[in-house]
Amino acid sequence: MDYASVLQLLDSTVRLSTPLLLACLAGLWSERAGIFDIGLEGKMLAAAMTSAAVAALVAAMPDRGALGILAPVIWGLLAGILASLAFSMLHGVASITFRGNQLISGFALNFIAAGLTSLAAQSIFGQGGRTPQLAGDARFSPVTLPFTDTLRNVPGIGPFYAEVLSGHAGLVYLAFAIVPLTWWLMYRTRYGLRLRAVGENPAAVDTAGVSVIRLRYSALIITGILCGLAGAYMSTALQAGFGRDMTAGRGYIALAALIFAKWRPVAALWACLLFGFFQALALRPDIVTAIVQTRVPGPILDALPYILTVLVLAGFIGKATPPRAGGEPYVKER
Amino acid sequence: MPGDAGGRHAGGPGGLNPPASVTDPPAIELRGISKSFGPVRANDEVSFSVPKGTIHGIIGENGAGKSTLMSILYGFYRADQGEILVHGRPTALPDSLSAIRAGIGMVFQHFKLVQNFTVLENVILGAEDGPLLGRSLRRARDSLTALAREYGLEVDPDALVEDLSVGHQQRVEILKALWRNADILILDEPTGVLTPPEANHLFRILKGLRDQGKTILLITHKLREIMEATDTVSVMRRGRLVGTLRTATTSPARLAELMVGRKVLLETVKAPARPGPILLSAENLTLQDEHGVERLKSVSLTLRAGEILGIAGVAGNGQSELLSILGGMTRPGEKVSGRLTLKGRDLPLSGRGADGKSRRQAGIGHVPEDRQNAGLILDFTAWENTALGYDDDPAWARGFLTDNQAIRDDTARKMQTWDIRPPIHTLAAKSFSGGNQQKLVIAREFEQDPDILLIGQPTRGVDIGAIEFIHKQIIALRDQGKAILLVSVELDEIMSLSDRIAVMFDGRIMGERDPATTSEGDIGCLMAGIAPARIPEQTPPGPTAEAP
Amino acid sequence: MQPLPKWADLVLVPLISLTLAAFVTALVILSIGESPWFALTTMVQGALMTASGWGHTLFYTTSFIFTGLAVTVGFHAGLFNIGGEGQAQLGGLGVALACLCIPWPHWTLALFGASLAAAAFGAAWIAIPAWLQAKRGSHIVITTIMFNYIAASLLMFMLVDVLRPMGAQDPSSARFPAELALPRFNQIPGLDLLFPRSVPANVTLFLALAAALVIWLLLWHSRTGYRIRALGKSEGAARYAGIGPVKTTMTALLISGALAGLMSVNNVMGDAGRLLGNSAAGAGFIGIAVALMGRNHPLGVVLAAFLFGFIFQGGSELGFMTAIPIEMRVVIQGLVILFTGALDMMVRMGLERVFARLPRRPSKAKAA
Predict the structure, then answer these.
(1) Does B246 touch chain C (CB under 8 A)?
(2) pLDDT by residue (tens digit) across B179-224?
(3) Which residues in chain C are closer than 8 Å to A254, comparing Cβ atoms?
(4) What distances in angstroms separate CA C150 from CA B19, C204, C255, one per listed residue?
């Protein structure tokens, strides 16, 4: 296998890891606050559809008027975040305010999102549940990092810099920047301390005079925003438009990565890169065949992240202890 | 500032000498506080005041309304009526935050700590200095050192709470309150989980805090603690305040009478025991929990037919573990060793045959300590609970299926004979009162006619009338020649029912006494882990031969 | 606050939840510019007013009874088996292998054998998550989600690389022998008077109803059921009673997986006559809605399964006959799960408030 193939593989790893990473961090915020969220998938889907639809609609306007101040893709991004937030808040109402079962709520919202997105896309565009192909400023264009051209001719590093690191959509860099930001917020700020506490023992936070409900909702807002970014990336950067069920289980892979990373931000980055790498491999069976010298069926590669996660859950690769108050609605005791 | 506590007698004028000077308004004054939950009046026109710089006890039985009152003081509940004055100012306490702002700190019975946070993180949680943690953590470290010196509140600031002993965790709770500048400290049943030395240490800390001008409310149902630690005491009964007294001028008997509203029955009438052959004998029982901590250390005892062996001790000294081994309730992670024989036959201690069902089949009945989480399934009906532990009783089997009607009939009959009210066997167990729930368990276990009966905390949360009934039944069972092992943290209960008393401390049996010849003081010493120098006329509880 | 009367809890709460879900559905239909009334009449027309409609509705009902029962048994043990989809797919594999590899002399024997295989494969697929839950406390919800995806991959591999006949294009198994086809309602004497034309509903419906009866007996009239329910309600009480948590958890989940697997008898053997990709078609997930809606009681599950059969068939009718896309039924399904499962407390709290006011009137009347 030549160096070019390796670079291509790593390049698509970065691309494919990004939505996983954003969704995984989204799950991290929510679960660290004690709210299980298996609805990452649905929120991504909602955001993916909304951003593609809004970007397409704005781009198609003959006269954008006041909307002209931002590119259509940005309007799409904002709309996607709003859609994801709406789902996130619904999850909050069900699981925080009405103390419903968090797993069932997340699960239900996934279905609603799956149905509503194709429904809406179909009734707006009439193209079989898809949005129109996005082009130009309705999509995120690649960002070329500085010195790419200067470094390109440096052997080894140059092509790596140009192919793997440079040339991604802005959202990719944003996603990677959110990792240290999340770490810092979680471990170095008052907000993070309280948030982690509310996921471990909400009574401790409550008796300290801090509102459990407000903290948990705030975490869900962050979750909503991050899932919004993940979904918008799917339809306006990774792909050029929304297609039915386009997230294809990424919300669940992100959840798997979260467990794999034992609910820690930096580990989440590595887990998502690993799972993204598997996805990239599944797209290049020729490379896999070249390495192991036999044909590996694609489905086996697809299943790898899940199998690994089960191994983690089983305690064969370290022990994954979820936040202690996770999944439990908080009821004030006397 | 907690750091100030180290300063020269911080606080207002007269903060040093308890009780505070008469000119100070009381630290806390309650006027006509009432609170109802549905038809239940948890607090009924409660009024009292606590002078600054004193330790005030609030005593009462379970369900007397103490906890409700404290929850109102800490902003958990809002009173339906009445007024709260803090340092003479009427203060609304709609939530915990306003209570904290009013200078009230609370140490809950069940600690509100984040287990995988450090002590420092727990202390500053919710009362940080600013949006970034660095400064708070540094300042907290300094003031913790100061407080440790001042009051003997030593605790490693960087330790994870989950690694601390219960006593140290409680210190963290007190530190939390002091970090928030509390000058009124409420402690809810603080010694329930402490060993006697830890409890004594706590009282020393509290007295130190009082001498620095803090006001302390100590809620407990233990008379000894009231007498030992408080300056004044209020007695609650059924939601009402029935009296406030100076501790120095009252007696435990007087307080007890106020608590229950009549002279406490001192002795239960019972004939002398006629012990028969040894039915159960335990040798060197040892239990190690999931974390490798030895909870039970080489306990040996024998139990004869027709006698009641009482196990006395402060909660958490191995009694629960002893019951769990004998009753077959050990958890998978726990390691048990030793030897257990029933009528000369060995009983397995772990694995197959060491579960609750096998124990029952071997003839050991069990009224568990925790009625709500073990003895009953609260969501099940009364009749379904009748089958708990006996679900494969052949009398209730009909081929592959169960004969539910037979269980229902049996339950209806039990409800009649044991006077369980309301006598509706289709009612969920949670709909019965504590006393009737306990009767459901006792009826089930007693009527199975076991040779040996394990009884844990038979009258916890049970009303007085039912207590007398339950005590009589236990004695009646003994007189039928059953062997009874009674575990209770209520020393009175142990003293009045037992034919022999074994006292547990720190997972061991400290000694055995004859209730006729011993005193509460003597038992109390053993409970506190103090082995008397004199060797009383006691037989060693079991063979001392080394286990192989 | 007084607890709700039992009848209100069992009947009123799900009915109100359902009404709320229907209301939101109507709003969605309105928002895409269609008429909810027309949608409803179309659904009723398509699902319940023709023999063919009934044939489809009952076909779906059959699948949903199995998956609904699967979730129900799990719930009673306090465990949320979200992996019915994967177990059903594996059950389909079991059916296919049984039908393709064994030369059955008659469809009745084949039905018996295929049911055993379906149940065994379904149970096998939950065995690992169940064991991890029982022994290591790994959360069953997460592991079964993972196993759903692994099942999808495994099935894809089996269909593409193993079971696909030589030269065939689409990923599916060979056709089962024709003589193993299960009698459809139009082929059953008596029923054929009602169903003149070929419908997918087949004898498996009777198997499903029998399963509901067996599960009812199991849960409330057997020792195993008692143990399952006791463990689900209180772990402490189970330990006290000597009910082995590992064995009981395994038993409950294996039964659950077997039920989910059994669903495949209906669609793989009863309808398709071969194993196709994504054979479970979401029925495993719908089982969750069915169990919630049916209040975890087999009778409720049968009724709720019929309701969802109606929604499923009516929904596809919507796709054919109106401008409302077929995905509407996914939305409805999600809404029902949301309202009956997660917002249950909202409905209950509202009702409790209403009931708290009601009893006063009669007592006042008495006083007067």
Answers:
(1) no
(2) 998 999 999 888 876 766 778 889 999 999 999 999 999 998 777 7
(3) none
(4) 72, 27, 21
Question: Which chains have at least 3 CB atom pairs separated by less than 8 Å from chain B?
Answer: A, C
Is the separation of the CB atoms in B144 and B155 below 8 Å?
A: yes
Chosen from B69, B73, B125 to mutate, greatest number of chain A CBs within 10 A: B125
Structure tokens at C256: 């659950």
Q: Which band of pLDDT confidence, cut at 50, 70 and 90, is reported for residue B12?
A: very low
Pick the closest to residue C77 from C264, C265, C303, C251 (CA basis).
Answer: C251
Identify the CATH number of the domain in which residue A279 sits: 1.10.3470
Cβ contacts of A122 within 8 Å, gap of 6 or more: A128, A129, C325, C327
| Residues spanned by the domain of A246 | 3-139+156-313
- Nearest residue on chain C to A301, alpha-carbon basis: C153
Interface of B with A in 55-114 (CB under 8 A): 67-68, 71, 74, 76-77, 95-101, 106, 108, 112-114
B546: exposed, middle or buried (C-beta count within 10 Å: 0-12, 13-18, 19+)? exposed
What average pLDDT score do residues A175-180 get? 97
Residues B225 and B115 in one domain: yes
CA dihedral B188, B189, B190, B196 (to 10 degrees): 170
Does residue A177 sit within a domain?
A: yes
In a domain, B441, yes or no: no
Any CB–CB contact under 8 A between A287 and chain C? no
Q: Give me the domain span that covers residue B84.
A: 2-259
> Is A146 a domain residue?
no
Structural domains in chain A (count): 1
Put simply, whether B375 touches C (Cβ < 8 Å) is yes
Q: What is the CATH number of the domain that holds C145?
A: 1.10.3470
Separation CA A305–CA B520 (nearest Å) = 65
Q: How far apart are CA B185 and CA B219, in angstroms?
A: 11
Q: What is the pTM for the complete model shown?
A: 0.85
C141 in contact with chain A, both atoms CB, cutoff 8 A: yes
Mark yes or no for CB contact A188/B130 under 8 Å.
Answer: no
Domain around C237: 53-346
The reply to whether B227 touches chain C by the CB within 8 Å rule is no
Interface B:C, Cβ pairs < 8 A: 73
What H or E segment, with its residue span, contains residue A194?
Answer: helix A190-200
Count: domains in chain B: 2
CB contacts of B106 in chain A (<8 Å) are 207
CA distance A5 to chain C (A): 26
Ranked by mean pLDDT, the top range of A248-262, A318-332, B265-279, C3-17 is A248-262
Contact list in B for residue C220 (CB cut-off 8 A) is 404
Task: With beta carbons less than 8 A apart as the criterion, state whether B435 and B421 touch.
Answer: no
Is residue C359 included in any domain, yes or no? no
Q: What are the pLDDT digits (tens) for C209-225? A: 999 999 999 999 999 99
Residues from chain B that touch A206, judged by Cβ atoms under 8 A, are 96, 112
How many other CB atoms are there within 10 angstroms of residue C177's CB atom? Answer: 14
Interfacial A residues in 159-198 facing B (CB < 8 Å)? 188-194, 196-197
- Alpha-carbon gap, residue C300 to C290, rounded angstroms: 8
Q: For B392-442, what is each residue's pLDDT tens digit?
A: 888 898 888 999 999 999 999 999 999 898 899 999 998 888 888 999 999
Which ranges of chain C would DSSP assign to H, the alpha helix?
Answer: 6-7, 13-31, 36-48, 51-76, 84-101, 107-131, 140-157, 204-221, 223-233, 235-241, 245-264, 283-293, 298-321, 328-337, 344-357, 360-367
pLDDT of residue C249 exceeding 80: yes
Residue B6 pLDDT greater than 60, yes or no = no
Assigned domain for C262 exists: yes
Quote the ipTM score: 0.90
C-alpha R_g of chain A: 21
Number of domains in chain C: 1
End-to-end distance of chain C based on CA atoms, in angstroms? 25
